[in-house]
Amino acid sequence: MKKTLAVIVPTYNEKENVSLLVERVAAALAKVDYEILFVDDNSRDGTADEINKLAAKYPVRVMVRKDKRGLASAVVDGIKQSDSEFVIVMDADLQHPPAVLTPLFAALQTTDFVMGSRYAQGGSPGDWTLGRKIVSFVANLLALPLLPKVKDRVSGLFGFRRAALDVTTLSPVGWKIGLEIAVRGKYKTMTEVPYTFSPRARGASKLSRKIIWQYVQQLVNLYLAKYQILNFMIVGGLGFIVNILILNALIKWPPAPWFTVKGSFLGTEYYLLPFFLSSLVAIIFNYLLNKYWTFKGWTEKKLGGLRYFVMAGATLLLDMLALWAFVRFGKIPPVPAAALAILLVFIVRFLIARKWVWAEN
Ligand SMILES: Nc1nc2c(ncn2[C@@H]2O[C@H](COP(=O)(O)OP(=O)(O)OP(=O)(O)O)[C@@H](O)[C@H]2O)c(=O)[nH]1
Ligand SMILES: [Mg+2]
After folding, report:
1. Ligand 1 center to residue 294 CA distance, Å?
2. What are φ and ψ of residue 119, in 5° steps?
3. How far is the CA of 93 from the centre of ligand 2 (A)?
4. Mean pLDDT over residues 169-186, rounded?
5. 57 alpha carbon to ligand 2 midpoint, in Å?
6. More confident residue, 195 or 127
7. Span 283-303, mean pLDDT?
8. Which of 48, 305, 74 lies closest to 177, judged by CA?
């Protein structure tokens, strides 16, 4: 039977914590049709057996993974294994006080994503060593542009409306699966519910150095996904280099200046034809990189390739006009003038590509 709420709890050697956790969650969610789904990575201390004992009295179940390991992927598997309307994710070690599930679930009735927050008014990071406070502060700051409206971006306690999230968009690397889910979901509304982080009472921490590196990887992925223009800029930058190198070579090439037809337009404006050719090469180069990298996973619209070249052709004309104006009236040498002209049409191209060539799935 479909539950209203699934509470997903990743566990690894948390035998000493689960029964108290379940008892307190039951008290906090007394009025809710919920289940707790533990995702255990084959703990050696008998966590799963302990949970199975609790199942006689409480709506809990455990999914044991024999091979896969890792907090984030455990959470993702738990989400896939449940089908409730709402999902809440929390740690097993009672650092997330179960009582906060009452206001968190209440907030989910009107908001698509709710972050449990140590930095919102009324919350607190609790008693931490200075070192951990600094690490958490920096980690939180690094994610600021990804979630500007949320104060605690690295919390492991959060809830969301399932329909707003496409699980296949998640890449479960690292520790901060809450940030991942907050950034990748399509939530109309987002809020925070304060809580006080308590020190771990029992059991050992699973934090390790490796997760810092994984966090950096995760941030890069999220920034690239959210600000796709970054990829487009890198592609544009590479295309720009290709374009300028070829242009430079063509202008300096022995039979140059290219069109030495005295008095003709292309004769005086000898840089225009080379620029046209070098731009064509760059356009093809950019199209392929954008197709296989920037908009990877997106669908190319009908006749997308043709659209791209029409778009590029039209903007190339604009480009050449700008180049000609820079050289003729601005008295700038052709190569730097071309550089300026390319930068000028860059944003126009990005906007057109995003609106007219590719579509988000
Ligand atoms: N399934 C699964 N759960 C994990 C794994 N690593 C950690 N967890 C669980 O994820 C939650 C958070 O891990 P903790 O070790 O408490 O990490 P933390 O809260 O950042 O660190 P402490 O403050 O030292 O407790 C706990 O419920 C762990 O049992 C893992 O590899 N697989
Ligand atoms: Mg913990």
Report:
1. 34
2. -105, -5
3. 5
4. 89
5. 26
6. 195
7. 86
8. 74
Ligand 1 contact, 200 CB (< 6 A): yes
77 lines ligand 1 (CB under 6 A): no
Asked if the model's pLDDT at residue 258 lies above 60, the reply is: no
For 44, other C-beta atoms within 10 Å of its C-beta total: 8
**Highest-pLDDT range among 11-15, 234-238, 270-274, 297-301:** 11-15
14 lines ligand 1 (CB under 6 A): yes
Domain layout of the chain by residue ranges: 5-226, 229-359
Query: Which residues are close to ligand 2, an ion, with C-beta < 5 A?
Result: 91, 93, 95
Of all protein residues, whose CA lies closest to atom 6 belonging to ligand 1? 71
Question: Cα(359) to centroid of ligand 1, in Å?
Answer: 38
* Residues in CB range of 142: below 8 A, 6 or more apart: 219
CATH class of 5-226: alpha beta
pLDDT in tens, 66-86: 987 789 999 999 999 999 999
**Interior/surface letters 55-86, b for 16+ CB within 10 angstroms, e for the rest:** eeebbbebbeeeeeebbbbbbbbbbeebebeb
Distance 205 CA to ligand 1 centre (A): 6
Q: Which two tokens stand for residue 132?
A: 């951990």
Nearest ligand to residue 89 Cα: 1
Q: Are 112 and 189 in contact (CB under 8 A)?
A: yes
Q: Which of 91, 127, 177, 211 to mutate to test the pocket of ligand 1 (most atoms within 8 A of CB)?
A: 91
Q: What is the mean pLDDT of the chain?
A: 89
Q: Which atom of ligand 1 is nearest to the CA of 39?
A: 1
Which of the listed ranges 107-121, 126-140, 292-306 does the model predict with the highest average pLDDT? Answer: 107-121
Residue 18 has pLDDT above 70, yes or no: yes
Quick one: tokens of 3?
A: 């539950």
Contact 278, 239 (CB under 8 A): no
The pTM of the whole model exceeds 0.85: no
pLDDT tens figures, 203-233: 877 766 677 788 888 888 898 888 777 787 8
| Ligand 1 center to 9 CA (angstroms) | 10
For residue 138, what are its two tokens? Answer: 């920096």
